[in-house]
Design goal:
This is Proteasome inhibitor PI31 subunit. With about 260 residues, the chain is of the alpha+beta class. Helix content is about 25%, strand content about 15%.
Length: about 260
């Protein structure tokens, strides 16, 4: 099938409306946009797509009423694009505006050099070196906009197959011959280290000198043992060196009554 499929029919439907080389060039650009899945939704510069818009591959009514400024609306994935064609001296400045991002692709052509005739049957009858012209329009006007749209829709988000509820397995380094049995089934062997006399220890909850971590420190020597504040009662923490109770300095009432 020809790579120019459809453009001959498009020229045939518009042959009575072609008034200039600029018209022929706009028809070619319209066909290239439709080939890249754009659809026409009328004329003007309204950037909002509505339910009243009817996408079609046909050129809209009045598309070339203004021979100095063409303004056509297109839609791609419900996103409006505006095609501007501004005639200046011997050139025509083509801009394609993304109505959502306001990103623009531009192209400048000389219709007198590109277009050979305003009538014919095939695209070769209208356009000089048609393949080169089509490639230039596609590369400079279409690809800068649709490539970014395609990339945004085709770029996958971050994904992972790891279940967040499972305990992540951490194996020893490859050079180590030790295999931790907990990596085989991390839930089954909880507490195994406490039952295995040769198992790996779990560590201490507190340092041996944990009292220094929580109590006040000697400001001069932080490693010195704690001292008893003046006037505070002190009970030795060990049985060594304990004395017997003191004698009673005050005798109880009736201590000398043998009949009590």
């Amino acid at each position: 099938m020809s790579s120019h499929f459809g453009i001959d029919l498009l020229f045939e439907t518009q042959k009575e409306k072609i008034n200039s080389e600029n018209d022929v060039l706009i028809i070619v650009i319209h066909w290239i946009l439709c080939k890249n899945k754009f659809r026409s939704v009328g004329v003007g510069d309204n950037k909002i797509y509505s339910d009243e818009d009817r996408p079609t591959e046909l050129l809209p009514q009045g598309w070339n009423d203004n021979q100095k400024a063409y303004t056509l609306r297109y839609v791609l994935d419900k996103n409006i694009f505006i095609l501007y064609g501004i005639v200046s001296d011997e050139t025509i400045i083509i801009n394609l505006l993304d109505g959502k991002t306001l990103k623009t692709a531009s192209l400048v052509l000389n219709p007198k050099e590109v277009i050979k005739a305003k009538s014919g049957i095939a695209i070769e009858d209208f356009v000089n070196d048609s393949n080169a012209v089509i490639e230039k329009i596609t590369d400079q006007l279409v690809k800068p906009l649709i490539s970014s749209e395609t990339a945004k829709s085709a770029t996958p988000g971050p994904s992972t197959n790891r279940d967040p509820l499972l305990i992540r397995r951490v194996n020893p380094p490859p050079h180590s011959g030790i295999v931790d049995p907990r990596t085989i089934d991390p839930l089954r062997d909880i507490g195994r280290g406490d039952l295995d006399p040769f198992g790996r220890g779990g560590g201490m909850l507190f340092q041996p000198d944990f009292r220094h971590e929580f109590g006040p420190r000697n400001p001069i020597n932080p490693n010195a043992p704690l001292r008893i504040p003046p006037g505070a009662r002190y009970d030795p923490p060990n049985p060594f060196g304990r004395l017997d109770p003191d004698n009673d300095h005050i005798r109880p009432p009736g201590y000398d009554d043998m009949f009590m």
